[in-house]
Amino acid sequence: MTVSGNRGRSATRRGGASLSFAALALALAGCAIPRDAPPPMASVQAIPERWVLAEPAGADIPIDRYWLLLDDPLVADFVADAQGGNLDLAQAVTRLRAARAGLRQARAARLPQISGSGGAGRDVGDFASDDVLLSIGGDVAWEVDVFGRLGASVDAARADLQAAGYSVGDLERLIVAQVASQVVSARSLAEQLAIARETLANQDDNLQIARWRNQAGLVASLDVEQARTQRAQTAATIPLLQGDLVAVSNAISTLIGEPPGRVYRALTETPRDVPAPPTQIALSVPADMLRRRPDVSASEARLAADLDRVGVARAQLYPLVRLSGTVGTSATNVGNLFDIVTGNVFAGLTQLIFDGGRVRGQIEGAQAIADGSLAAWRQSILIALEEVESSAVDLETSGERVVALNEASDGAQNAALLARSQYQAGLIDFQTLLVIESQLLSTRTAEVNAEAARALAFISLARALGGGWSVPEGAGIEDIAARGPSE
Fold first, then answer.
1. What is the 3-state secondary structure (H, E, C) of 348-382?
2. Of 8, 150, 199, 328, which is least surrounded by CB within 10 A?
3. Is 124 inside a domain boundary?
4. Is residue 6 a part of any domain in this protein?
5. Residue 383: CB partners within 8 Å, gap ≥ 6?
């Protein structure tokens, strides 16, 4: 009896000690290890206050839906189809969902883990009781986040979620621009195809005229052979242009998530000129542009996550505090099951003493990854600045080229009309007509290519400015795409 009493008092002392230890652990819960945060952008990479080569003056455009300014219904339709049906975007959304689940898991690690058990048993044998012993129990385990290991894991998972969200937005930005660019390329190819067919019809007439003049003895057979050669060379370009148009149409089909066929029919059944975009676009200052770029924000979020993982690795050098407890009861019938309930509470502390440098290696590895993410963040800033500067200059120079080629094309058409009539009258030889016809074809083709280049430069500039994406739902990020420069 005395021994039993001492054991009860000892158990009471152990329980009180565990509770005191738990209170001490809770009091220390704010003593988290220091963790680094991403530094200010301007401190890691020099950002110019103004654009060096690009002209910032121009008209403000709705950057989030810039492709509507091309005034091409197929561009608007196919972009909408891609936003809802592109399979690369669908894969990126699944990665966003996985990151959201990872954050939920990280948060759950900060909460107690509770499990229950129950059972029924019966003795067997000659002297066994016929009673069935019922038992119910429960276990509780909780890691006290004294030094911030779990908190750092949660912050890393939250940054991973933000990076995944920005990555979805950046992929949408790129896909929208790619769809719009492919439609512009298809319009250019269709227009070049029409020019080639029109030129081929004119060259058929030239060949017939040369044959008539040769039969009349007015010209040598050389004119006929030159006319045949010119016509055959033009005819050879038509299948090439047709194949290119099919390839671009099929690429658009893949981007919008459907098999080939419908896009090609839409492009050929409803021909339009190459879209003419705005030529002067207002540029925000570089710092505001960088805040709208989802790729830059994604790189910053990845850096934040990697820095938090450095904190997770460092926390292994600090003590680990766990609280655990059990509670249970047993009886031979349900009515008496809760008459006697027993339990215990235990607090444990674990401190790493020696592991041969494993944790130190993990810390160094995590720090190396964070350093790489810092370099990637700086690289994304430089790429963004480069894209804006280059695209803005491309838009300006391509516009100047279109103006010059418009005049050249008008002059070449007038020259071709005069040359045909003069050749029929015998005033010029066929070689002169041949040169003028070739100049007309090349000039008209160059004009269409310049118009396409201008539209592509506009798309590239709008994409570089951070246009064409929306904030994914549930990504834990703010709508930086919709903010104005002054916000």
1. EEECCCCCCCHHHHHHHHHHHHHHHHHHHHHHHHH
2. 8
3. no
4. no
5. 295
pTM for this model (two decimals): 0.85
Q: What is the mean pLDDT of residues 411-437?
A: 87
220, amino acid identity:
A
3-state secondary structure of 61: coil
Task: Please give the structure tokens belonging to residue 219.
Answer: 């010209």
Its sign, for the CA torsion 465, 469, 470, 471, is: negative
- In the chain, how many domains are there? 1
- Strand arrangement, sheet containing 133-144: 113-121, 133-144, 320-331, 341-350
Please give the residue range of the domain that contains residue 439.
47-108+147-317+360-482
Structure tokens at 366: 């995590």
Find where tokens 């201008």 sit: 454
Which CATH number does the domain housing residue 474 bear? 1.20.1600.10
| Cβ contacts of 296 within 8 Å, gap of 6 or more | 290, 377, 380, 381, 384
pLDDT score of 444 more than 50: yes
CA nearest to 451, candidates 150, 127, 192: 192
Residues 231 and 205: beta-carbon distance below 8 Å: no
Residue 61, pLDDT > 90, answer no
CA neighbours within 13 Å on the CB side: how many for 420?
A: 18
